[in-house]
Amino acid sequence: MKKQLFILSLSALALSCTKTEFDNVETNAGTANFANYVAVGNSLTQGYQDGGLHNEFGQHGNSYPSIIANQLKKINPNLVYVQPTSSGSGSGYIHLAWINEKIKVIKAYDIDNPNNHPMAIDDDPTWATWGQNKTIKYNNLGIAGIKLANVVGGGNTSDAVNFFISNVNENARFLDWGTVANKISYLDHIKNSNATFFTNWLGNNDVLGWSTNGGDDGFESQFNEYFSRLTDVTEFRNKYDSVLTAFQKMGAKGVCATIPDVTSIPYFNTVTLEAVDKDVWITEGPYSNNPGNVRKATNEDLILLTASDELAIGNGLSQAKPLAHDFVLDKDEKLISQNRVIAYNNEIRALASKYNFALADMNAFMRDLKSGLTFDGVDFNPEFISGGVFSLDGVHPNTRGYAIIANKFIQVINNFYGSTITPVPVGNYRGITFP
To answer: Domains, the chain, ranges and CATH?
Structure first.
């Protein structure tokens, strides 16, 4: 699922670290029990950034659950938090390089691409054996690529589909998925976690995959088809309920997080008509009113980050050579995506209230970020690279962004459970690494 990224010139952004202002603060758990903290979710929970899992400077090691866990240990020093952390370049990743007096984005090495950049970063030698020890009990159950639909069979997603997806997804191999005859589901792993406290940020991929594929169900491969298909709202509700039921039965308390408007991230807002400064011709997708119709793009259409390479070779610059529909989330598809997020979030809010779990409104948080937020004296916004929050894939936060997210969860936990977990100084975490 490594995405094509466009070449961007920019000046380096200097952000200074700040020393902690939270030392010597008395902490307590309030009504929560932090003996065993478990995080469930997708790539955002796993600590994915720059199009991969990598850890040269603690990127993967500073997933937002890891940051939260470190703060919980100040309350409960006996807390044991285990995350399957990659080493070095991990699965390979996107990086910046100084070339011809400009800073440019270099895509990750792709074995299927015959024209990789000479500076492309490949898998770390340790990646081949990452996650092979199935006997370790992990606290961070985040898996890049997992949808809420995949947590357990039912609805339009069967056990067989989930088993297939889990076994072809290299980011999921740290968990035991059983055998064809005796499958183990993601929900089984949740039930066996013995959590006393949890964070749950499942659901993003149930709309994100479809949106990043330009409103296409992804029939080019079996994996992409299941990743890109929109999840039915009823199936979403039932499977989210099954996750919260599992936590309730083990007596855990925790936090559920809403889904941001996925169309608000840099992946959909960097290659704009203003940035291209030319007419762009697009092919409307199969979910629009006029499938296959070629027209000029308007500001209501979202041209994907992946389209930059196409535009660089002239595709999309004439009616005769329009951008293919999977490089654009057209205005009709954008509305479908946004409405589906609203529907999912309505279910998340209702179910969190039903089980009396706290709610982190990450959808509202992203709206606030769009207007600009300040942490530790540094201004942040959702702009690609220069905004300071997102990594080079335009979808996932950088380490500093994950620290901001961790603080949001901490604020919600403190407010709901009466705890006094200390937030982290955001400036002490790395942003994008510049050459």
So the answer is: 37-212+219-258+344-428 (3.40.50.1110)
